[in-house]
């Protein structure tokens, strides 16, 4: 890929995946096995990953309780993308009605040159992705996504307890203790407690490996679209739903409409090696504008409509030796296990896939003694997938941030066919590159887990036999 190496663990199941996807509708609710061994399961953390996991487990017949440290359920931040690999799962679980009026389906993704906004890369989304991958490519406000998951969780019988900050894990019982002294026990504890996970060092035998600072940070902001419509220099961004990404040296800006088209989401990434504890929120808007003061004048007009912003450090999780405790009764998922930079827009999607795969693994077994087998197969498959995506995200971090010069020119040349409407066999735009696109969006977490189980158990008929 023009000098930038792709992750070595990109799978090559193109023919099988395409055949399967072409026969699958995103609206089809595929019946799945109910768990033969219904378990009592604690999920720690009611973020996007924790709620998705709780839904996946509850709909298979497990008794699921979620413990959340916050006093009220909700999410902060701005927009988030829901690509087909996670949208397909969520829609099959029944989230569709809770997405109505909240999601936007962008028609395309366009990469633009930092100084003038000229198109240098293009990916057709919309109907193209629906037909190829069996599900839409959505964008949504994080708060709306979280609300939809909360509603779905309630519908499938998940019990959510707020004001329940877990401060101690007993992996052997297994049980947890909250800050106010309450104790909860279950057959299995699933910790979706984020990058600052309390469970991770327990799983790792007492030695933590927290996510690594990447040297990048991102401003996240939302602009009311009514303010953009009055100026032709900004109104054009609203004519059709689409994702636009300006890329340049050590910086990029990703934009798209959310909240049913009422708000315009912006993520402005930039190099920053400073200590987050020194960041002054009162200076955030001014600093953000200064970072992009020489960029495309039309983009700057949108940036100057921003009145408040939040700055986030970008982290990439260390590769862990295990996600499952020695007792095999405590497991970590999501950002606790595989935090990644957002340059493939797959962080939350990986957590949704985690939940789907875990629920699938626990539905295959028919005795409680087989839970460790299910967790072992889950861990192996999900490590391969999520750490591969972590690598792909870091690749984009290099591709997008070249300074003007030979590497930047080679990258732009590698995307030119898309813009000109010509056929191509590979692209430096990972959204369009055929191999990367199929690996990213064609992956079915439930099906891949079943295949992994069959392989692990030495089955030759391709079926996920219950054992």
UniProtKB/TrEMBL annotation:
The lineage of its organism: Eukaryota, Fungi, Dikarya, Ascomycota, Pezizomycotina. The keyword Transmembrane applies. This is FAD-binding domain-containing protein. Belongs to the paxM FAD-dependent monooxygenase family. InterPro entries: FAD-bd (IPR002938), FAD-dep_Monooxygenase_BioMet (IPR050493), FAD/NAD-bd_sf (IPR036188). It comes from Neonectria punicea. Keywords: FAD, Flavoprotein, Membrane, Monooxygenase, Oxidoreductase, Transmembrane, Transmembrane helix. It comes from the Eukaryota. Pfam families: FAD_binding_3 (PF01494). Residues 40-386 form the FAD-binding domain. SUPFAM superfamilies: FAD-linked reductases, C-terminal domain, FAD/NAD(P)-binding domain. The chain crosses the membrane at residues 37-58.
